[in-house]
From TrEMBL:
Primary location recorded for the protein, binned into one broad class: membrane
Transmembrane segments: 20-38, 58-82, 89-107, 113-136, 166-185, 197-230, 242-264, 276-295, 339-360, 393-416, 428-456, 477-493
Top-rank taxon: Bacteria
Gene Ontology CC: one annotated term: plasma membrane
Protein name: Branched-chain amino acid transport system permease protein
Gene: livM
Record flagged with keyword Phosphoprotein: no
Keyword terms, alphabetized: Cell membrane, Membrane, Transmembrane, Transmembrane helix
Membrane topology: Multi-pass membrane protein
GO molecular function ontology, one term from the record: branched-chain amino acid transmembrane transporter activity
InterPro entries: ABC_transp_permease, LivHM_N, LivM-like
High-level lineage: Bacteria, Pseudomonadati, Pseudomonadota, Alphaproteobacteria, Hyphomicrobiales
Compartment(s) where it occurs, according to its Swiss-Prot or TrEMBL record: Cell membrane
Length: 524
């Protein structure tokens, strides 16, 4: 077998030739795939005529990225350690170039506050890197050495600071997030950060955690999860509009209604698994959406339901401007919609904490272990005497209940619901978050939601990209392309997701010998 590196430590010529050939094939394939979607664009001119806009420069960027990426994959796969060596050089240079370019754009456009924030983030990242390298990593190495010695002596192991304090730190930062946003940007300026980034991300975190019960714990592929989201939203909208019920009454009712629909979906699919289950759940989601569109007497069809009542602070203070107990008037604050968004942020944060707490508790209960057994092997699960009917129904109902909570919150936040908010793409995005984060991992799913949803919102504000790709470039239109690339990269390097884990909740910490009495009785 020929060596892939010569005596000088450089890649062999045959390997380079192979990489260049595959890079050429990747470039041709990328050109064929993107020429009609990226290279050419239909638009209307001033005479309202349909014209074709050519964007060969943007197409060339996509082709070059595909070719360079394929060449890099070939080289990294063949030469051990090359990826780490390359990243040590590429990452600092790329970070410095991005920071320098952003500073240039901000200075030219006189975005002084943004430049100050960017500089603060860079300094904070540098300090964090120094802290991790010189304090946390050595402490973690010493802890591992002590645990090795403790395991040898049979003593209890020492928990890492990450396991002990990570969730507390994250919760503290989330509680302070709206306060910091108001302090830096003011009440009106904080709306983008509190609403578009904070509330939007937490809604998808809650939805993904609910779907994680069905897909990650029970192993049931559900492609119609957005239907329960729609049930919760329309339950709140209709009952609030027709009966005038408050948010705090309709929040649990919406979850109960969605859970009932989860049981209704669960019964027909009890005997289905895998692809067949996915097809039926997909059809269920589309049926719910079509019913909402066509039942115009009740749901108003595609026009949607508007004027939905806002949530109140337990009925004590309201956020309606015309009422006496308006929150801003009672506390003598200037009139602003930011206070309502901040209140909603803490409400959805509490709902996410409730979802996480219930999920963790259920995993440690017999029903949670039954879900895990069902996920690993349904036939073995039945042979152990577990009732798979009730196990599946509880998984569907529990996951649907959290989607109903999120749907009712969505209706209160928007004040308007329509069928366009509950298309199949929403189910696909939620499922992608679960898969990318790691099925069964609450932390990984939260990270994936921040990356995917937060990345989408960040693209909307990246106007500086127009200086690179042209003034007609619209970054948010390429979010699905970025999601696809992210999923490919994650599946290549982290097949189980960011923080994927399939370890069971209950397991034996040490092997034990089987008693001879069990063997004699036929149990061994």
């Amino acid at each position: 077998m020929a060596n892939i590196e010569n005596s000088a430590g450089k890649p062999d010529a045959g390997l380079v030739r192979k990489g260049l050939i595959q890079a050429l094939f990747a470039a041709v394939l990328a050109f064929g795939m993107f020429v009609l979607y990226v290279g050419l664009k239909t638009d209307q001119n001033i005479s309202n005529e349909l014209v074709i806009v050519q964007r060969w420069g943007l197409l060339a960027i996509f082709v070059i990225i595909a070719a360079v990426g394929r060449f890099a994959v070939v080289m990294f796969a063949a030469i051990p350690g090359l990826f780490a060596k390359t990243m040590r050089v590429v990452v600092p240079v790329a970070v410095l170039m991005i920071v320098a370019y952003l500073a240039y754009v901000f200075i030219r456009e006189q975005f002084w506050l943004d430049l100050l924030i960017l500089g603060g983030l860079v300094v904070l990242a540098a300090l964090l890197g120094v802290l991790i390298k010189y304090v946390l990593l050595p402490a973690e190495e010493r802890r591992r050495e002590r645990n090795v010695e403790a395991e040898r002596l049979g003593l209890p192991l020492e928990a890492s600071p990450y396991e002990t304090h990570f969730l507390k730190v994250v919760l503290a930062l989330l509680l302070l997030y709206p306060v910091m946003a108001v302090a830096l940007r003011g009440p009106q300026g904080s709306l983008t950060f509190v609403d578009n980034f904070g509330i939007q991300i937490l809604i998808y975190v809650m939805l993904a955690w609910g779907l994680n019960i069905v897909v990650g714990l029970a192993g049931l592929l559900d492609l119609g999860y957005v239907a329960f989201y729609a049930v919760g939203a329309y339950s709140y909208a209709l009952l609030s509009s027709y009966f005038g019920l408050s948010f705090w009454v309709l929040l649990p009712l919406s979850g109960i209604f969605a859970a009932l629909w989860g049981v209704i979906l669960g019964f027909p699919v009890l005997r289905l698994r895998g692809d067949y289950l996915a097809i039926v759940t997909l059809a269920f989601g589309e049926i719910i959406r079509l019913v909402i569109i066509n039942w115009t007497d009740l749901t108003k069809g595609t026009f949607g339901i508007s004027g939905i009542a806002k949530a109140s602070v337990f009925g004590i203070w309201t956020f309606d401007v015309g009422k006496v107990n308006n929150f801003a008037k009672v506390f003598g604050l200037p009139s602003s919609s930011a206070y309502y968004k901040i209140f909603l942020f803490y409400v959805i944060l509490a709902l996410c904490m409730l979802t996480a707490y219930v999920t963790i508790r259920l995993r440690r209960m017999p029903i949670g272990r039954a879900w895990e057994a069902l996920r690993e092997d349904e036939i073995a699960c039945r042979s152990l005497g577990i009732n798979t009917v009730t196990t599946k129904l509880t998984a569907f109902a529990t996951g649907a209940m959290f989607a109903g909570f999120a749907g009712s919150f969505f209706a209160a936040r928007q004040g308007f619901v329509s069928p366009e908010s509950f298309v199949f793409l929403e189910s696909a995005v939620i499922l992608a978050i679960v898969v990318l984060g790691g099925m069964g991992s609450l932390t990984g799913i939260a990270i994936a939601a921040i990356v995917m949803v937060g990345g989408t919102e960040a693209l909307r504000s990246m106007d500086f990209l127009k200086y690179i790709f042209g003034p007609t470039f619209t970054p948010e239109l390429y979010r699905m392309l970025i999601f696809g690339l992210a999923m490919v990269v994650v599946m290549l390097f982290k097949p189980r997701g960011f923080v994927g884990s399939r370890s069971p909740t209950a397991f034996l910490k040490a092997r034990k010998a089987i008693s001879g009495s069990f063997i004699k009785e036929g149990h061994g």
